[in-house]
Amino acid sequence: MEEKKLILTFSVLGFLSILTEIIVPVDYHPYYWWHAFIGFDYIFGAIGGVILIVVAKWILFPIVKRDKNIYEGSNEE
Amino acid sequence: MRDFFPAFIVIIPMTISLLAPLVGRISKVFLRLLTMFGFFLSVIFSAIVLRETLTVGNVYYNFGNWEAPYGIEYVIDPLGATIAVMVSFIALLIVIYSREFFKDEGWLKNAAYYSLFGLMVTGLLGMTVSGDAFNLYVFLEISSLSTYALIALGGPRGTVAAFKYLLIGTVGASLYLFSVAYLYGITGTLNFADMSERILPLMDSPAMILIVILLFLGLGIKMALFPLHMWLPDAHSYAPYPLSAFMSGVLIKVPAYVMIRYYFFIFDVNHAVLQNVLQIAGILAAIGIVYGSVMAIAQTEFKRMLAYSSVAGIGYVVMGMSMGNAYGMIGAVFHIFNHAFMKVALFFIAGGIKQKFDHIKIDEFKGLLKKMPVSMYSFLILAFSMIGLPPTAGFFSKWYLVNGALQEGLWFFIVVIVVSSVLNAVYFFRIIEFAFLNKEEKERKCKIQSRFELPLSMLMPIVVMTLLVLALGIFNADFVSAILTSVVPEVIK
Amino acid sequence: MILHPALIMLGAGLLIPFVPNTLRKVFLILVPVVVLFASYQLQYGQELTVSFINNMELIYLKVDRLSWIFIFILAIVSLTSNLYSYHVTSGVQLSAQFIYVASSMGVVLAGDWLTLIFFWEVMAVSSTFLIWVSNNEEAKKAGFRYLLVHFVGGNLLLAGIFIKVSQGQLYITELTANMDLASILILAGVAINAAIFPLHAWLPDAYPKSTITGSVFMSCLTTKVAVYCLIRVFPGLEILIWGGVIMCLVAVTYAMLANDLRVILSFHIISQVGYMVAAAGLGSDLALDGSVAHAFSHILYKSLLFMGAGAIIYSTGYSKLTDLGGLYKLIPGVAILYFIGSLAISGVPYLNGFTSKALILSASSIQQYPAVELLLYLATIGTLISTCLKVVFYTFTGEPKKDYKIKKVPVHMYAAMTITAALCFIYGVFPDLLYNRLPFEVNYVPYTFDHVISKIQLFLAATFMFILFIRTMEPKDVYLVDADWFYRKPFVYAVQYTSDMVVTIQESLGSVWLKGINSTVPFFRNPLRKLNFIFNDMEIPDNYDADHYRVSIGMIMTVVLIVFVVSFLHLNI
Prior knowledge:
The complex is a heterotrimer.
Chain A: H1 2-23, H2 40-64, E1 65-66
Chain B: H1 5-26, H2 28-55, E1 59-62, E2 73-76, H3 78-97, H4 99-102, H5 107-129, H6 133-152, H7 156-187, H8 192-199, H9 206-223, H10 231-238, H11 241-251, H12 253-266, H13 272-298, H14 302-323, H15 326-357, H16 368-371, H17 373-387, H18 393-408, H19 411-437, H20 456-474, H21 476-486, H22 488-492
Antiparallel strand pairs in B: 1-2
Helix pairs in contact in B: 1-2, 1-5, 2-3, 2-5, 3-5, 3-11, 3-15, 3-20, 5-6, 6-7, 7-9, 7-10, 9-12, 9-13, 10-11, 10-14, 11-15, 13-14, 13-19, 14-15, 14-18, 15-17, 15-18, 15-20, 15-21, 17-19, 17-20, 18-19, 18-20
Chain C: H1 5-15, H2 21-41, E1 47-52, E2 56-62, H3 65-84, H4 91-109, H5 113-132, H6 137-166, H7 181-194, H8 202-206, H9 212-233, H10 238-257, H11 261-282, H12 285-316, H13 327-330, H14 332-346, H15 352-366, H16 370-396, H17 411-429, H18 432-435, H19 449-468, E3 479-480, H20 485-493, H21 498-506, H22 509-525, H23 532-535, H24 553-572
Antiparallel strand pairs in C: 1-2
């Protein structure tokens, strides 16, 4: 139930933010094409977030996961 | 009277040591005072002679007024004088320090100890001031024989270690004697100055190779250069505590000084023979440094750890000698003094702990900071010096050595120095961690009562030595320039 | 009269163990105030020198725009951190704190290489003590590893400096144009301290095991001083750009998986330092300004975050996310302050992270490294997800996972955190306060509508994704192996013989690790074990036993003979 409410809130806010960008006259000084693209940051945030989570959880985690005690018992001096 | 000072440096300790048994029969206290006074005079005389060598020039003394090269003469240059000052000063501190260890023994043991100690120092001082090859051998044997007897005073293990050292040391001294015999054979003289002139055309002869090697082996055994060091760990661990300090600090340094004297001042160091032997020396020294440090880590007993550390220390000195440039020599000579002070102070601390708690295993260092703060803080400074952290003297001797190696492009040496510093850090920081950061594990009984943590006769030498290590580091510029003037021209030549 | 802040701090650090306990509290606060005053008074262009051997003049105080701004923030943070550590009574710890800050300041103010390396080494030693005072087994071992890593780094730096000084270059200059062996060695030494991937593993290994006040100090000092060195010595070095970007992303990914509070924050140090390193690599005026500004802001919000984490650990006794939860109801003040810090690190507008990150991102696009800009931007998302969302969600919201006996968080901790949070706000709302003090002139306006709306969109989207993937982000209590595997493992294996290695590889994975590690111990306990054949003995004792390995006299003589023969042959050839 909580989750549903959160999703709703954030969708609305996201929508509003893109709307703001469309309505208000923004002075871009674009160096690259994406600086002037409306809503670019929202998309970037969404896709980027997904990529990061996926990479972290499904690619990196299996590689680096070890039991807590792999260096245990060593008298490293 | 002034002219006799060089002779006095040697004669006074000798007289004292001969008188000691007699005096000791009467009163132990008087015996101690007499010995202290004797060494004190030695220090004074050496210092006066040192000043003279720095201002006027080399000091000469002919025995029996027989002119050199027929008679035996003493030749003292700044390097020799400085070493003489160091030897007598440390001997003085050791005598002060020995009070606790021998005050409960009978008169015979006391008399034997102080008398033999005096003879040993006589021998060493004689080695530094002598200007004659055979005379040097005589003094070498005097000091060696008294050392063997002294080590045996350290209990049953000491006796065995002394016997082993006796056999090996005699071999070493004999090798030295052989080389002197060869030298006499090919040059016809025993006097150093004369020899250095006569040897120049003879440098190519096959006898030279033998002489150089015999010297290398003989002196190498005496100064515990890897792999000829095997007598050292036992001898230094089982000797009486004050004696271990002296041995590790001074006894193995004087043969190194003799080697410098022979290789650099008398022989032509640029000749292929010497270049080759110094190469071997350098490699053995480098291995010895790493070996000493690794073995030191493995030890469970503090004294033995320090003994192995001394093997590494001599390695530094020989490595500096083998580099063949000014920085290397400066580093080597500086390290002679530096290591002497550090090791003596460390052994003093070891003896202090033994006297107070009757143990010396490394595990039992835990929580020692509360009980013996002054000693432990001194230990901290000394550890910094052994590892090579500024502004202690240890940093500067390693600095000079690294500079020397850089100049010659000897990357292997630099790696060895760096690796050994890290290894030194391991075993010293382990003790620091135990002492400073751990709580005491079980209750210990204090064996002695005194106002400070140790009796003043033991505490004062520790503090003095530590301060000297710091001073040597901070004021090394003056010291180094003095060495520069006397030693380096010989090397660059 | 010029007051040298580092020397004042150093003197205080050496005195503090001898000062009685009540006076110590006064010291704790008074000294940083004095130092702050002294730092503020420093004028650009002041220099102090002292003579050293060989007629070298050492410059131990050199003030220019770059060093001033660093000294200023170091002084500020020493005040807040000291305030935070008001409750510490251990003389050793306090002394180490002071000396650590003092040596950091010493490095920043150094004008010549020798002063720099001297203070650098002091930094390494004093920070090791901060780890060791934790007094548990793990901390001891981590402290040793930290010491060894920093010793190696320090020695590399020393080697490079030796070469430079013996070539006659005593004073610190830019080395980017002239990358010879010495410069590479110096770069390596600095890179280790800056935790550049893959030399970064010591940081998440050591920082979480320090005391809670110790971590606050460590987070602000070692890496930032290294960044300062990079800005001063290697600006515009291209490899730093990519090193920085990699640091950013890899660290952030690890942070998303990590479980312990301070481990996450440690990875974030690496991530944010990645921004600074990349900016230093970009080299333009704007980029270097960005790097400095980011260091400035980072010191503030990182110390806030570590203070918050420390407060959590102090009051609940737990530090792992799997053990925490629902703390908002129990310690709301800490929750709010931590939240502010995490917003700052993510770069939310009106906090200082925004103003400094913007500089770096703009610089990277102006200089035509679009990939860099996008990748750094990506890292921001990661930062938000891991520090802000994940930690806040799993620590402060939800249900408590354990029964906590809450220790009240002391007033001085709250005070220190509030001051730092306030500074974050101030520098966020009035960025010019910082911009005016940056090394190069700044004509940058961060609060354009464009920038603000972009950031807001980014955050909304990322948060949205986080919510959708909330199950996946749940922390697990496992160990994440890191790049230090490469030297911790070979260190273990290198002393085994090859045959052992072959045999153990054939065994199952679990016992391989354990066996390998346990075999170094015997070596160091008894280095002669492999030489047992010389001693003709069946039993190999575990510890080096002197009596067991005594060499016979015959053996000694043999060795003498061998040396004789070998040297004779060598000399004859």
